[in-house]
Design a protein that fits this description.
A five-stranded mixed β-barrel has the order 1-2-4-5-6. Helices cover 31% and strands 45% of the residues. The chain has 135 residues and is α+β, with helices and mostly antiparallel strands. A hairpin with a 2-residue loop joins β5 and β6. The chain has one domain: ATP Synthase, domain 1. It has one helix and seven strands.
Length: 135
């Protein structure tokens, strides 16, 4: 069977995997698969799991917080903030849930901080107007 190379890049590392038979990922339009010889493709993967099948091995799983996918010349590149490789789907799914929960907490904290800053700014603008300071 024909194979292709898979290059995984995040902000800290790069892993090159050779002998990949198939890759399955998903973007906003749905799931898709890539095999050796696929036409050039660029896609934005969403937050979730992707999987790939190395030659003569079981499926492996990638947990991603989103990624840019580029396939050309029998080489698949995934560019992401970070990625996690797993051999077991259940472990990958659990890690992804944990990552999502962490990101949701961080997002909630950021939103609360922005609201507090907005309130402080509005209060200060009101005080300045009351004191007759023109902007």
């Amino acid at each position: 069977m024909r194979t292709f190379a898979l290059c995984l890049r995040d902000t800290h590392r790069c892993e090159e995997l050779k002998g990949i038979e198939s890759f399955v990922g998903a973007d906003d339009t749905g799931s898709f698969a890539i095999r050796a010889g696929h036409a050039p493709l660029i896609a934005a993967l969403g937050f979730g799991l992707a999987r790939f099948k190395p030659e003569d091995a079981a499926w492996r799983y990638l947990a991603l917080p989103g990624a840019v996918l580029n396939f050309a010349d029998n080489r698949l590149e995934l560019l992401t903030r970070r990625f996690y490789l797993y051999d077991d789907y259940r472990i990958a799914a659990a890690a992804l849930r944990e990552e999502l929960e962490t990101e949701e907490r961080t997002l909630a904290e950021t939103r609360a901080s922005i609201r507090a800053l907005e309130q402080h700014m509005l209060k200060r603008l009101w005080q300045m107007r009351r004191e007759g300071i023109k902007l």
